[in-house]
Design brief:
Distance between the termini: 79 Å
Order of helices and strands: HH
Strand content: under 5%
Shape: rod-shaped
Number of helices: 2
Number of strands: 0
Helix content: 10-25%
Largest sheet: none
Structural class: mainly alpha
């Protein structure tokens, strides 16, 4: 039985991939989905670049002391 649509998986598919848990249409949809885990997409773990801060204008600040 397919874990996606709960229909039987074809014999041809199971002969080709004995450990298949999805029928061909469901596996195709699964493969095309966005990759959302670090295991599937290592880019997720990379730190995001922060925009550079603008320099502050300190010309109007007076010194204390």
């Amino acid at each position: 039985m397919c874990v996606g649509c709960e229909e039987p998986i074809s014999r041809e598919r199971l002969r080709a991939v004995p450990s298949a848990t999805r029928c061909v249409p469901c596996q195709t949809k699964f493969d095309k989905r966005p990759k959302t885990t670090p295991h599937e997409n290592p880019e997720i773990l990379k730190p995001k670049k922060r925009p550079k801060r603008k320099a502050r204008d300190l010309s109007s600040v007076t010194e204390i002391g």
